[in-house]
Write a structure and sequence with these properties.
CATH superfamily of the largest domain: Kelch-type beta propeller
Strand order of the largest sheet: 1-2-3-4
Number of domains: 2
């Protein structure tokens, strides 16, 4: 057997590594270390299939070509999907739970879908009380619906686990009763709830710690009082769009570092002013869909969560929709928008039950996923595989 020992290999121009042809086997007892760097230093002049480690997100990523760019390699709760997980989701994959809302009667019903499988939602259980306008946050194992209107504005936090169908339980309280707050799905430790109406609009940000199941705690403030906004998270940041700041709708986006406490900081703007959007994310990209200003819209925008700046057009939903600020959910690769108020044909009381799907790492129009069990808007939706996890 031949053996070559060198400290460095480069191509003949010393501009990069050598090209190795044929079937190559790498062996070793320890590890292979790929190139690494932050999001801002991603190269653009590389071959599709190139691999690197992103130090901002702590994920491997690969290059999919100039029109798509870099995409993170993420396991959708791989140990759980394979049945070897230590959590309570063993063998389930990524689920999204969709609960409450109005038809216009208030609902307590909880639906669920499996994110990797197209089709209609199925029955999961019920909230502790019928309500609309809850902010929904979630970890890998637990989901919580916070506040809402039932009627009467509530401060209760209902929780359940993803792994077992059944009813949610009232386990804790927000710092103040409110509806129409923006969800901040958070990370696997905590979720955030921002703004909302008490009925007066507020700028308060609360955080709820999933494993403790105690009352929510003050996190900080948004820069202005607002309601009917939305939010999404990476593993480090949570971004909120404001929705409505009296006397008008706005396109403001702010962010916080999820693991700390403190006031929100300016991030950028949506492509258009609107409230009642839905939001979702993978670990790098946040997506905002729908809303109204004053007409309902099907616009989908996206931002790169690690980099402040204005949102960019992603594509369009199948239908215009709004009043569904909690209606987005995601896995590592796929996002869904569900229900909402819409004048589209086939709806009941101008509310839809349709679920749209997008592939988060790309851009383009949404396609049909399936239907919820009821026509509803102002419902709360979360998953055990969103970008903060």
């Amino acid at each position: 057997m031949s053996e070559v020992r060198v400290n460095n290999l480069s191509n003949e121009n010393n501009t990069g590594g050598p090209t190795i042809s044929g079937i190559t086997t790498y062996s070793g007892r320890h590890f292979f270390v790929p190139p690494q760097g932050d999001t801002a230093s991603r190269p653009e002049d590389c071959e599709p299939g190139s691999l690197r480690f992103n130090t901002d997100s702590a994920h491997l990523e690969y290059f999919r070509g100039n029109t798509i760019g870099w995409t993170e390699i993420e396991a959708e709760l791989a140990t759980d999907i394979l049945g070897g997980g230590t959590g309570s989701n063993t063998g389930l994959g990524v689920r999204a739970l969709l609960a409450g809302g109005d038809t216009p009667s208030y609902l307590s019903h909880i639906d669920f879908i499996t994110m990797s499988t197209m089709g209609d939602a199925a029955d999961f259980g019920n909230l502790s009380t019928a309500r609309a306008g809850s902010a929904c946050i979630s970890s890998r194992t637990t989901i919580a619906w916070c506040g809402g209107y039932a009627p009467g504005i509530s401060n209760s936090i209902d929780t359940t686990i993803f792994s077992s169908t059944g009813n949610a339980t009232d386990t804790a309280d927000l710092t103040t009763s409110r509806q129409g707050a923006a969800k901040g799905p958070g990370n696997n430790i905590r979720g955030l709830i921002a703004g909302g109406s008490t009925p007066s609009r507020v700028n308060v940000i609360d955080y709820y710690t999933f494993v403790v199941a105690a009352n929510a705690v003050d996190f900080g403030d948004l820069s202005d009082i607002c309601s009917s906004g939305s939010g999404c998270s990476s593993s480090t940041r949570t971004v909120f769009n404001f929705g409505y700041v009296a006397p008008a709708r706005v396109n403001t986006i702010e962010f916080v570092t999820t693991s700390t406490t403190g006031n929100a900081t300016d991030f950028g703007d949506l492509t258009d002013v609107r409230n009642g959007t839905g939001a979702l994310s993978n670990s790098t990209r946040g997506v905002f869909g729908g809303g109204e200003n004053p007409n309902k819209t099907n616009i989908i925008d996206f931002v790169t969560i690690a980099s402040t700046g204005n949102a960019i057009d992603f594509g369009d939903m199948n239908y215009v929709r709004a009043n569904a600020s909690g209606d987005g959910a995601s896995s590592a690769t796929r996002g869904i928008f569900s229900g909402g108020g819409s004048p589209a044909s086939g709806n009941d009381n101008n509310r839809m039950k349709r679920i749209d799907k997008i592939e988060i790492a790309t851009t383009g129009n949404a396609i049909d996923f399936g239907d919820m069990t009821d026509h509803t808007s102002n419902h709360g939706v979360g998953s055990n595989g969103h970008g903060g996890l």
